[in-house]
Each structure stands twice: as structure tokens, then as C-alpha cells.
Amino acid sequence: MSGKNWDRVPIDAQSIDAPLSSAAIFLVVTVADDRGALAKVFSVLDGLDDLVKTVGFRDLSGRLSCIAGIGSDLWDRVDKDTRPKELKRFEPIKGPAHAAPSTPGDLLFHIRSERPDLCFEFERILLDSLGAGVTVIDEVSGFRYFDARDLLGFVDGTANPTGLDLPASALVGEEDADFAGGSYVVVQKYLHDLGAWQRIPTPLQEKIIGRTKIDNIEIDDDDAPRKSHKSLATIVDADGNEFDILRDNMPFGRAGRGEFGTYFIGYSRYLWVIEKMLQRMYIGDPPGAYDRLLDVSAPQTGTTFFAPTRSALQKLVQAAGN
Fold it and tell me: Is the distance from CB of 136 to CB of 54 less than 8 angstroms?
């Protein structure tokens, strides 16, 4: 949905609008329960932009960037009184056939570049700076696969908003003025059963996804008895307004271990939009008619964060140091 009063991305917003990259690292950590660790972590967050410049300056064409997201529990440890309106823990979902788990995470670092070595170097220095005060919960290195396809063979991210629709869809607006320019972030790591997927005939794969496989043409399944992944992930309110999110999903895998997956990351102006999307996928619409993609794609994680503007992050840094 295109919001109002958006004529530009806020100058102090994090780099959520950065172009899709060729490589990425998704790093989720927890923070030790003591004031010293908390103060150290937020001092590192305070210098995140400088670290991006230090590493990225070696090759400016590599377009290194890093978005930091803060989980609900960590936010409460710093400032319980002033927080984004919708921020909360990821709520697990139990569907008729599949479930979405909720997993721990105090901080998310979404590191992006055109060069995997820049992502690696940034993460290495970042973790060294954070020190023993954090514990790595999940770490995934993603890569762009051919023409922006996932490992299931379909183009991913086609429906992403562009232009002025991007900030209107992904960045909080006047409805929560204290946190305008920030973004709710939901991450899930999915593992695919490629053998089972490859045994499904291509025409049925296309009905499950909602797009043709080769040329990425959207399939109209409004009158179909079972909605596609594309349709279930489309959120429309009672007035017919469609609400978009910004996806920066990346394939990942280790062929020698038979591990193949997609790391889902969604940025949204409203957390409820992603929550409703996942409810439709796991519960189904109508209930029971769940997303058939889940038959071959199993979620391993589920965590919610908020990526504040730089000025809002600075206030948290000051609060953590007191």
C-alpha cells in the first residue's frame, strides 16, 4: 500500500532501501545479561556506520552495508517506556500440517555487499568488537542464484515495492512518529527438501508458487480451489488496499551436507502485515488450505526485530551507557 507524506527516504534511516546484493550474511546474536555487556554492545552499534566505511572503502563498488535490528527483549532492557508500538517477540504459529517456531535473538545484523569477502571481513571485525558479551544464535551466508532465483528454481522478490512505494511499505510513518523511518524486520530460515520438490511436475510447482517457472509470469488463481504461495502472501484489507513488504530473501546451502534453503527476511512498515501473511500461509485461507510450499520448505527459525533510524539508535546507545 502506498502511504502518504512519503516524498523521500528519511535521511537518518538505515540502508533498508539499498539495492538487492549478490552476497549477504544474516547474523543473529543474544546479549549477555549484564550491564557491561549491554554497554559494550551498544557502543559497537554506535560505531556501525564507521565500520561499514572502514571495510567498504577498500572497494566502493562492492556497496557494503549493514542493517542492525533490535529484538523486543533487548529493547526492554534498555528502554521499557519508549518503544515501537508493534514490537514484540515472534509469535509461533501452529497450522494443521506445519508450524512456524519462535527462536531467540536480541540483535540482527543484515550485512550486504556485491563481494562475499567484504561481508566476511565486516562480520569478522564486528564479532571481534562485540566480544564475549554476545552469543551467536544463527549465522547464514546467502548468495544471489542466477537471475535472482531461489533454489527451487523460481524468481524470488518480484513483488517488491519500488520508488516511493518502498518507504511507504517498509518504513514506519506518522502513525508512530517517535520511530518514523524505522522498520519491523522478521527473519525465518527455511530448509528445502529438493528431492521432494523435483519430483513434483513443473505445472503443479507453478500452481503452488503462483508464477510460471521459466518466464516468471504471475498466474491468476483467484478462482482456484487452493490458493498459491503468491496469493496467500498478498495482504489486502477490507477496503481493498494492498499492503506490501520489502523482501531481501537469499538462497544458501552446503551441497556436501545436503543442505539447501532460503533465508526469508521481510521489512515492513507494519508488523501485523507480516504476521497476517504468515498466518495465511500456515493456517490457510480458508483454514486448512495452507501454503503447499511448506510441504517441502521447513522453517528452522523465527525472530522479530526493529531496525531504528540512526537518531533513534543513538538514543538507545545513550540509555545503555547510563
Answer: no
217 part of a folded domain: yes
Pairing of strands 235-236, 250-254: unpaired
Cell of 215: 518466464
Q: What single DSSP character describes residue 112?
A: E
Distance CA 216, CA 214 (A): 6
- Burial class from Cβ neighbours inside 10 Å (0-12, 13-18, 19+) for residue 57 reads exposed
Work out the angle at residue 244's Cα, subtended by the Cα atoms of residues 276 and 221, and round it to the nearest 5 degrees.
Answer: 75
Classify residue 18: in a domain, yes or no: no
Flag whether 289 is in a domain. yes
- Indicate which residue of 106, 138, 150, 156 is catalytic: 156
Task: Report helix angle 116-130 to 48-56, nearest 10.
Answer: 140
Kindly give the parts of the chain with pLDDT less than 70: 1-10, 322
* C-alpha to C-alpha distance for 282 and 97, rounded to whole angstroms: 8
Residue 59 annotated to the active site: no
Sequence-distant (≥ 6) Cβ neighbours of residue 132 within 8 angstroms: 32, 37
Q: Which residues contact 109 (CB under 8 A, 6 or more apart)?
A: 25, 26, 27, 28, 29, 66, 67, 68, 69, 123, 126
Q: How far apart are the first and last CA of the chain?
A: 40
pLDDT in tens, 253-263: 999 999 999 99
pLDDT at 7: 53
**How far, rounded to the nearest angstrom, does the alpha carbon of residue 1 sit from its chain's CA centroid?**
19
Looking at the chain, the number of H-run helices and the number of E-run strands are: 10, 14
Is 13 within a domain?
Answer: no
| Structural domains in the chain (count) | 1
Half-sphere exposure of 6 (CA within 13 A, CB side): 22
At position 211, the amino acid (one-letter code) is: R
Per the structure, the complete domain to which residue 232 belongs is given by: 23-321
Query: DSSP class of residue 240?
Result: S
